[in-house]
Design goal:
The chain is mainly alpha-helical. It has a two-stranded antiparallel ribbon. Helix 1 packs antiparallel against helix 3, helix 7 packs antiparallel against helix 8 and helix 8 packs antiparallel against helix 9. The longest helix has 24 residues. The two termini are 33 Å apart. 42% of the residues are buried. The mean pLDDT is 92.
Length: 216
């Protein structure tokens, strides 16, 4: 029963975020997009609270792989799409795909959903706030392919990743957690910096998950 409730609450939660994003859309597409990007990462808390069935926890992210692809093609959910859809590639699809893969791996294979939580929060808050602060703060910018990155954004990514990983490793009683947190955060920040066309929504959470497993 909890799994069914979890599915219902998940869709309600996502629906509320999309509706709220419409208000932010008035301030620009990028604002509404990053609001959705950041807030949706909190879905993992719902997943950990309600789901104990692998199929149930996979339904929501898998459904949004298809929904987000349709939105990408048809501008179905305008608040989360760029005006130039080619600029970010399939970033929104990759986001849902990462959640699906993390759900399968951490709930089903290794049975450590808390690792999926830290990976998802870094994708949401780390990558999301890096983009926001990178645009707000004047700093050195660099170009990877056709994607522009900023030093301020990368520093933000580094700090938030370190903070989340440190909490995770400390709570899991990992030895040398500070050094491990620093190493992981540097690697993840570099991966985010060189990822283009929305691929950071794949490289960041999946790499974080794997590095946490290795470092435990």
């Amino acid at each position: 029963m909890n799994n069914i409730i979890g599915i219902i609450i998940s869709y309600i939660f996502i629906g509320i975020i999309i509706i709220m994003a419409k208000f932010f859309e008035r301030k620009g597409k990028e604002v509404s997009r990053k609001f959705i990007h950041i807030m949706l990462s909190n879905w993992w808390f719902i997943a950990m609270w309600f789901f104990d069935n692998l199929i149930a926890v996979s339904i929501v992210p898998l459904s949004f792989v298809f929904i987000n692809y349709i939105s990408y093609k048809k501008n179905l959910i305008s608040a989360m799409e760029r005006e130039d859809i080619n600029k970010d590639g399939l970033g929104t699809v990759y986001y849902a795909l990462s959640l699906f893969m993390l759900s399968i791996f951490t709930f089903g294979i290794i049975k450590k959903p808390e690792i999926g939580l830290y990976a998802t929060l870094i994708m949401g808050y780390g990558d999301g706030l890096a983009a926001v602060i990178g645009k707000k703060v004047n700093s050195i910018s660099y170009k990877v392919g056709k994607t522009y990155k900023t030093l301020a954004g990368s520093c933000t990514m580094l700090f938030i990743t370190f903070f989340i990983i440190a909490i995770g490793l400390y709570s899991m009683q990992s030895s040398l957690w500070i050094l491990k947190s620093l190493l992981i955060s540097i690697i993840i920040t570099l991966l985010e910096a060189i990822s283009i066309k929305g691929l950071d929504n794949i490289t960041v959470p999946i790499s974080t998950c794997l590095l946490l497993i290795v470092m435990l």
